């Protein structure tokens, strides 16, 4: 779906389609998404040139494996933010799924059944969020903060301080396996399929248009026939489902189930989505920008680890990127509006003088 920005005159009712008034090269290259992609390229080149052993297949493998949970969680969160809502509970949903898998497996449940239960546990979190936000119309910020604490507490309550690590070796190997002779993890094929599916869903389907319409104005969307309750409920279910799948991947990627696993993952997810150009106010965003934003977050984290910085410093860097990604677009919009307002004020007297001159003739 191509986003079309327009302004409507209150008196004449004429509309000017701003986006398509620009040349194609400007619409393609001078965008937020293009700037983030360029940033990924620049950071990669600088890191490869200045850090020994950075540009190796092993580093690429670890980088892609590390960003996989962030990217998979970021895809449905992108649609949720575009619809005008937010989901901060993805990390606790991942952790809850991880704990359910470990706990059931330790109790003697076959690993296939434990994985299914873990995925359904993530779906349960999405169901709770969707019911409270879409059906009861409670604020998504308050709801998902609440479910973040709720399901994190349940996870810690199930396992306490215990850690379960005796998972099948073949599943651990599969979760960390690469394409032979490369640093490209096998799990990235599933990630690429998920990216394509969500991109098609958001940009090329009626459902995606409903998501944009809901984020641009929920009342207008309702009067236009969009079933906003169904749209939001579906998005939170998708978020819970992907979180459940990520919980299963997380279990075998790190070979452990703990009550505090995936803690803080929501910061990287939200930072990657917002850094990728998705508006926190809804109605704007593209999957390609989110993918680039998540990769940039992963690159920054990887570079800082190579430089032996602690996890606290890495969290500060990610938080700083989040603040910058929110503040810069708002500042740019404010400056643009101020300049446009100043131009209108200067042009109005000139038009009035020209009109009087014509009347005098």
TrEMBL record:
GO cellular component: a single term: plasma membrane
Keyword Membrane: yes
Domain of life: Bacteria
Record-linked Pfam families: BPD_transp_2
InterPro entries cross-referenced by the UniProt entry: ABC_transp_permease
Keywords in alphabetical order: Cell inner membrane, Cell membrane, Membrane, Transmembrane, Transmembrane helix, Transport
Bilayer topology: Multi-pass membrane protein
UniProt-listed CDD domains: TM_PBP1_transp_AraH_like
GO molecular function: transmembrane transporter activity
Transmembrane segments: 34-54, 60-81, 88-105, 111-134, 141-161, 181-202, 231-250, 262-281, 288-307, 313-335
Compartments, as annotated in UniProt: Cell membrane
Protein name, UniProt field: Autoinducer 2 import system permease protein LsrD
Organism: Mycetocola miduiensis
